[in-house]
Design brief:
Layout lengths: L1 H27 L5 H6 L5 H11 L5 H14 L24 H36 L4 H14 L3 H15 L15 H35 L2 H8 L4 H29 L3 H7 L4 H10 L3 H29 L7
C-alpha cells in the first residue's frame, strides 16, 4: 500500500507539473499580449510597461516559466507589493492582493458548501438507490428511478431561484443564504447554507440514485453473491454483506471526482446564492481578466481533483478485499 501511494503521489506531482506548463502557456504564452487583456482599451504605454514588469512579461518565455515554478515552490520577493510566500501565484491585478491568500480566504465557504452538500446527496442518493435495488421491479423501484431521471434533468440555476422565491421571499421559512464561519456561530452557519446544500444535493442525488441502483443490481447477479444465497444466507445479509461493498467501487470513483471538482469551486451554486467561494472568485477573475487569480483557481482545482483521485484509489482495498494494490 505504501509503495502504491508513493507512486501515485509522484505521478500526481508530474501531472501537476504538466498542468502548470499548460496553464502557463495558456495564460502567458498566448500570441495576444496578456497586459492588454488585463488592462483593457484605456491602457497607456506606461501602464502596459508596468504590467509587463509586475508579471515578468518583459523576459523570455522560458525564463518566465522558471520564475513561475520557483514562485510555486519557494515563493518570490520581487513584487512591488512585497514578498509572496510559496505557493506564489502572484498578486491579483484587480484587488492587488496575494492570489493564494484570496484562495485561502474563500476556501472555507466552498469547503462548507461541498462537504454539506456531499453528505446530503450521499444519504439521499445512496439511500434511494439501495431501496430501489431492494424493491427491484416494484412500484417503489419505478418511482425512484423515474423521479431521479426527472430531477437530474433540472439545473441549479432553475431550482436555486425557485427555492429562494418560495422558501425565502414568499413563505420566509428561511433567511437568505449566506456564509457564517462555523467557529463563530454554528447555528447561523447551518441555517445559512441549508438551502444551497439541498439544491446542490438534488442534482447529484438523482445521479447517485441511478448509479447505486444499477451497481447493486449488477452485484446481485455476481457469482459469489449467488453462491452466498445458495448456502442459505438471508437476503438481507447477502445484500449488505456482499453486494453492498462490491457496488461501492464505481460510486466511490465518481464521488472522488465530484468532490474534487466541487472543492475547486461550485461555480453555479455559489453564483446563484451569492456565496463568496472559489467559484465566485473564478467568475470575478474572468470578468476582470485577472489572469493571476484565474491561474490560481485553475491550479488549485486541478490539485484537488488529483488529491481525491489518490484517496479514491487508496480506498479501493478497504472497500473490496478482492482489490489488491501492488
Amino acid at each position: 500500500m505504501l509503495r502504491f501511494l508513493v507512486r501515485r503521489i509522484i505521478g500526481a506531482v508530474v501531472i501537476l507539473f504538466l498542468l502548470s506548463v499548460v496553464a502557463f502557456l495558456l495564460f502567458f504564452g498566448m500570441p495576444r499580449d496578456p497586459a492588454l487583456l488585463m488592462c483593457g482599451k484605456t491602457c497607456n504605454p506606461a501602464q502596459i510597461e508596468n504590467i509587463h514588469h509586475v508579471l515578468g512579461l518583459d523576459k523570455p518565455v522560458a525564463e518566465q516559466f522558471w520564475i513561475f515554478l520557483q514562485g510555486l515552490v519557494m515563493g518570490r520577493d520581487d513584487f512591488d507589493q512585497g514578498p509572496c510566500p510559496a505557493p506564489c501565484f502572484g498578486y491579483s491585478y484587480h484587488t492587488n492582493e496575494q492570489v493564494w491568500g484570496t484562495l485561502l480566504d474563500r476556501l472555507p465557504t466552498t469547503l462548507s458548501l461541498t462537504l454539506g452538500g456531499a453528505v446530503c446527496f450521499l444519504l439521499i442518493g445512496l439511500g434511494s438507490g439501495l431501496l430501489a435495488a431492494w424493491k427491484r421491479g416494484t412500484l417503489v423501484d419505478k418511482t425512484a428511478t423515474a423521479g431521479a431521471m426527472v430531477i437530474s434533468s433540472m439545473q441549479i440555476y432553475f431550482l436555486g431561484p425557485l427555492a429562494l422565491a418560495i422558501l425565502v421571499y414568499q413563505t420566509q421559512m428561511f433567511d437568505r443564504p449566506a456564509y457564517h464561519p462555523v467557529t463563530d456561530d454554528p447555528v447561523a452557519w447551518f441555517s445559512g447554507l441549508i438551502i444551497p446544500w439541498v439544491i446542490l444535493s438534488t442534482i447529484f442525488a438523482a445521479q447517485y440514485t441511478r448509479m447505486a441502483r444499477s451497481a447493486m443490481v449488477e452485484q446481485l447477479q455476481e457469482e459469489h453473491v449467488r453462491t452466498a444465497r445458495a448456502k442459505g444466507m438471508s437476503r438481507r445479509y447477502v445484500f449488505f454483506r456482499y453486494a453492498w461493498r462490491g457496488s461501492l467501487i464505481p460510486i466511490v470513483t465518481i464521488f472522488g471526482i465530484d468532490l474534487g471538482s466541487l472543492l475547486g469551486g461550485a461555480i453555479i451554486t455559489e453564483y446563484t446564492f451569492g456565496l463568496p467561494g472559489l467559484g465566485r472568485v473564478a467568475v470575478d477573475a474572468v470578468s476582470f481578466n485577472d489572469l493571476p487569480l484565474l491561474l490560481g483557481v485553475m491550479m488549485f482545482g486541478g490539485a484537488m481533483i488529483l488529491l481525491f483521485n489518490i484517496l479514491v484509489d487508496a480506498a479501493y482495498a478497504f472497500i473490496d478485499p478482492r482489490v489488491r494494490l501492488s
